[in-house]
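Hi everyone, sorry if this is the wrong subforum. Our group has a chain we'd like a structural model of before ordering constructs, and none of us has done structure prediction before. Sequence below.
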Amino acid sequence: MTDATKFDAITYEVRDHIAEISLNRPEVLNAINSTMLAELNLALDLAETDPEVNVILLSGRGRAFSAGFDLKESAARGDVTLAQWRQFLQVDFDLIMRFWDCPKPTVASVHGHCLGGGFELAMACDLTVASDTAMLGEPEVKFGSGVVALLLPWLTGPKMAKEIVLTGLDKLTSQRAYEIGLVNRLVAQAALDDTARNLAAAMSSASGASVRMSKQAINRSYEVMGMRTALRQALELDIYIEANGGPEREAFNRIRREEGLKAAIAWRERRSAQTV
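Answer:
Right subforum, don't worry. Here is the predicted structure as tokens:
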């Protein structure tokens, strides 16, 4: 049985006890804007309260999972106060952590670019399946920004987290992500959808109560280690990064306004050419 609900920036469909949520702004590589944030929260409300849903599967339409938070929308805000940055980023943080805290298990199916906020969404899901051509990373420092939900060191360790975050690495191959524990399954693009659904189905067919409480038990081990406190402190630092701006941010936004986003990204890449 199939249940479909209409959205603008995402799609939502329930099939075989799996709520399939797809990011649906393919023309901008599924950049996460305020509409998508609101619709993701609504989709999670639906999935969490629907007794027919056992598992949530998150994917992206088009050429990418997600290129991260929408830079155009962010730049269009103009001058933003510290208090406003705190409000904006808290909304972003809360949405990412909803996947981590979701009472039902979550699976991310990743292809193409999976960067910034999109990368954090994939990490917040319980399981992540990636195509062998996917590129992941956290490019924020390249244009004077910061990481909203700093899950990375908790999933891979401080050395790799620092390499990815402090260099603004945005060409982390899915093979390397698999090697350092950020991806559960690495498959060819043609097998991506089936592999992600099979993992979701395996969890869906198990005892629902056992799966949910086992997820909670694993998450609590991170809570005991202080993860939530660390994430909130990291968010507070990101608020100050965003509010303070800086020359890199100013240059990036100026080029974006005058020449377009592609030119601004090209400028950013020239400044920090790198290989993985």
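For your construct planning: The first strand starts at residue 2 and ends at 5. The chain has a mean pLDDT of 92.
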